[in-house]
Design a protein that fits this description.
It catalyses: UDP-alpha-D-glucose = UDP-alpha-D-galactose. Homodimer. This is UDP-glucose 4-epimerase. It holds the Pfam family Epimerase. Helix 5 links the parallel strand 5 and strand 6. The protein is built from ten helices and 14 strands. The chain folds into two domains: about 200 residues, Rossmann fold, CATH 3.40.50.720; about 110 residues, UDP-galactose 4-epimerase, domain 1. It is α/β, with parallel strands linked by helices and about 325 residues long. It is globular. The two termini are about 30 Å apart. It binds uridine-5'-diphosphate-4-deoxy-4-fluoro-alpha-D-galactose (UFG).
Length: about 325
């Protein structure tokens, strides 16, 4: 039996494919390569190029391969962009989930591991966000993921599709062997942008606002290393294989770092100056998102290995400094 990884050529999906393949699991990847990279996909995986919303193709994937469970990473995921283009986010993200659930129902596949996000909570005024914290997304992106979570809840009730929703906080870093890493076009994420400045690939970092209600005025986020995050998916797969009930889990580190603190940490890791300036706020950004991941630790027995922000940045730095232009540095197929 194989695991179908949708979006397996993307940043997080490709790390999941690598972990599954290295664990000896059969993996089928479906990706439309809108943001993914062929070079990021582990060579042992079966690669199918196509869009999740192509219902006929998806049904054929389930017919051709003996799929036991699905990991669903394929979505538009940029907070700022979603404010500008909400309909794209609802069409792609919610539309993709409708297509997926229809195909799973048709094929009698009943295990789904879903990439959700901290953005479902919106502006949380409490300290640590746990799974029961109220959900009030501040962006269409967060709203689309919350809608997807609600859809699968109802479809569990109606069709018995069991799911684990993993609400990621800020994922960062690269594989510890530096073979795969984070490469978006355009890049909007803080850690790769800072490291591109360190490498001279970009002039400076613009800090999006320093007038937030935080100690240094810049936004606080909770950074989780990508391999630690992916390990939670393997534990979630075990959890569903053991016949457990559907659940949502936060995946974060319980430690918040401001944008300025991230910049300082990156300066220490890289020993580079890294120019930065203060700019206006970015639409849709909540001031602070920090997770309690106690539930994932207790129920899934998740134990992140990276607890130090500099170690997380170090894994990213190793990949970026060996791939200063991302996957463009590697031969195309
Ligand atoms: N930031 C800057 N300058 C930049 C880029 C980012 O100041 O050039 C700031 C942002 O304003 C934010 C922080 O750095 O305060 C982190 O921004 P990212 O764009 O790296 O990440 P986001 O917090 O916006 O979003 C990420 C994922 C989402 C996910 C969210 C969960 O992209 O999919 O984490 O917390 F929902």
């Amino acid at each position: 039996m194989a695991i179908l990884v949708i979006g397996g050529a993307g940043y997080i999906g490709s790390h999941a494919v690598k972990a599954l393949a290295e664990a000896g699991q059969d993996v089928v990847v479906l990706d439309n390569f809108r943001t993914g990279h062929k070079q990021a996909v582990h060579p042992d995986a079966t690669l199918i190029e196509g869009d999740l919303r192509d219902g006929d193709l998806l049904q054929q994937v389930f017919v051709d391969h003996s799929i036991e469970a699905v990991m669903h990473f394929a979505a538009h995921s940029l907070v700022g962009e979603s404010v500008e283009k909400p309909i794209d986010y609802f069409a792609n993200n919610v539309g993709g989930m409708i297509s997926l659930i229809q195909a799973m129902k048709e094929a009698n596949v009943d295990k789904l591991i879903f990439s959700s996000t901290a953005a479902v909570y919106g502006q949380a005024d409490t300290g640590l966000i746990d799974e029961e914290t109220s959900k009030a997304p501040t962006s269409p992106y967060g709203e689309s993921k919350l809608m997807m979570e609600k859809m699968i809840q109802w479809c569990d009730q109606a069709y018995g599709i069991k799911y684990v929703s993993l609400r990621y906080f800020n994922v960062a870093g690269a594989s510890s062997d530096a073979t795969i890493g984070e490469d978006h076009h355009p890049e909007t994420h803080l850690v790769p942008i800072i490291l591109q400045v360190a490498l001279g690939e970009r002039d400076k970092l613009t800090i999006f606002g320093d007038d937030y209600d935080t100690p240094d005025g810049t936004c606080i986020r909770d950074y989780v290393q990508v391999e630690d995050l992916v390990h939670a998916h393997l534990l979630a797969l075990d959890y569903l294989q053991q016949g457990n009930d559907s659940q949502a889990f936060n995946l974060g580190s319980a430690e918040g770092y401001s944008v300025k603190e991230m910049l300082e940490a990156a300066r220490r890791v890289t020993s580079k100056e890294i120019s930065a300036e203060i700019g206006p706020r970015r639409a849709g950004d909540p001031s602070k998102l920090v997770a309690s991941s106690q539930k994932a630790r207790e129920v899934l027995n998740w134990q992140p290995q990276y607890t130090d922000i500099e170690e997380i940045i170090q894994t990213a730095w190793k990949w970026h400094s060996s791939h200063p232009k991302g996957y463009q540095d590697e031969a195309q197929d």
